[in-house]
């Protein structure tokens, strides 16, 4: 009986033991050796320094990595860690031992303060406890949980094999270098995504725009014997279109049968310079003056030492607001595609905005800076200004040519030639002059300064029989010195003239100070002298005097107030006061009140009301009064209805009146039915296509995309069966975004920014790439040589991480294989990517792989974008699309 009980007990014990063995094997397969040792109570506590194999991102980087054990806590060596991955982008303070490092692509700053016991990283300051750091000579050990939070994404430790596998949360120096090299190669192959701008292609000829203006005029002149209304009429045509690979502008007066100004313009033909071939109307007898000009347009003209005139090309028929400090201070309607502002508030070194309302309802802005650059150039840059024009009266021509070149970034040299016809002794003679300039600009102790010196002299020697002056004495030289010290500008200017001129010299020293943004104070000391002449009084020959100016400009909400006081002690210069108000708070119109007083007691005022552009009714009302001429009280009213009907009226106090009634219409000769209201505009033909190879180019084998909503300049149109959408009347010289609204989830617009900018009236051909989304499928193939079971293979798959990155190193997607080793990443464009496959387990010392892969567009139902990676003792390798 005892023997029987023993046999039964032995059998039960054996069965339990077998069951326990199976469970243990399962635990070993899913747990790390360290975790298993702790669970089974076989973990051996360690103290002091231990040596481990260190794997970083699956690759063995050190066999002597130092780990410190203290009070059952594990500490990782910092400098051993840096050395293992060749990291040198850190410094250590020699006095307090603090360490500052910059890690990853974004150069994130991490500071470890040994003295103050804190770690500063990711905009977070972590206070350390006394036992969070261990110092051993020059080495620093950091507690494992803190170390992991700063540097690691995953951490696996095998106590049995003395092995640590760290998966980093930042890019190593080698990875960064690899990506930089790859990015450089991509840029060299023009595959790196950049902004794409579509512009007009210069054409030999293409029909353009025709503007028709016709008005009936009724006039009453109270000064004539018959003060009844008299009627007259006027009509003209204006054409703009592509011609001879440039832009042709021409006018024709229908009533007088006269051809007006004709210009053939080539914008930005070289380094932002414009070439213009012109034929100008001279008088009303059919005479003409031909000319050619090549220049760099800065958007403003300087007519005197302080007088600035803004001059800008805009779409014909546009209303343009001049904005300063956020408030409209003037408004003009374009004439022949140009606006000119001569407002007294236009000063040196200010920023103005031109807000342009085109007649087809579009609004855009241009910024004008009136900074005096004295024609300075960067090193190696040129600036040209050549102007040649016939002179009808003398039957000769005029030449004005100037060239500037940057010898260095600080020194610019300029030279020019002037040739002009002049009446000398009742004959027309050519006077030739040359000019040279040197401009030097630099800074001293952070203060910018400029020095400029120039001279001009006539080469001929003509003597006037009346004045006895010789052109040999027609010369002048000038000097300028300027320095900006914070809000203070000091400037000295001097001009000296030869005896051919009336003036002998003029010297001006000025100081301009802006203590606050709204207030500007200026003082000038002037020395002027003329050559002695019977026509000048003694006071006029030699003058010494001062000019003072105080200006205050304050903008508050919708109101701008400007006040200015100018006083001069020089002869023939009057003191002047001005107080102006500009208000834009009304929804549909803007008001302006300008007042000026002079020291002779004369007062002048002007009140204006003008509509905010882009309305059905476009109007301007102005009333002006001058105390100097008390009869001068005028009222002017202009009205344009829907860019078709035009009405103008003007009347004064004496009863003089004039009225104009007529039409103003613009027609696109390529599509006469299109509602085109701005002649300075371009049609845009957009073609949407499926970009199968992701090169942003419309290749022959790529198909168009139908029914795609295209958005441009506030308009939306759908592509037709040919993938095209045509937009008419897009204003020129404005950069517009080109976008698509795609409602199919498997299609996406190119990430490259698309822009459209018209330079002339030729049709712009723009292409909008539509990217089809692709799916990447991968397979991890465990080599047969490892002789692993399916369960063991599954454990390997669980410890593999797949990262998809762009060429800047940005992580786009993260994936892990399933139990069969297959992984998928969807929603990718057909492009080149970096794929990183890393083993983060501790059972193998396996080097991961970084490879460049190309995803392609795959038709529905077809296989493609399949990538296989082989896993063996030598590492992980991409098998170049071989599906096993």
Query: How many distinct beta strands?
Result: 60
Radius of gyration: 40 Å
Average pLDDT over all residues: 83
**Largest sheet, strands/sense/barrel:** 24 strands, antiparallel, barrel
Q: What class would the helix/strand composition place it in?
A: mainly beta
* Separation, N- and C-terminal Cα atoms: 63 Å
Please tell me about this protein's structure:
The strands form nine sheets. The chain has a 24-stranded antiparallel beta barrel. Strands 9-10-3-2-1-12-11 form a seven-stranded mixed beta sheet. A five-stranded antiparallel beta sheet has the order 4-5-6-7-8, with no helix packed on it. The longest helix has 29 residues, at 2-30. It is mostly beta strands. Among the domains are: 33-170, no CATH class; 680-772, Immunoglobulin-like, CATH 2.60.40.10; 773-878, Immunoglobulin-like (Sandwich). The relative contact order is 0.09. It contains seven helices and 60 strands.
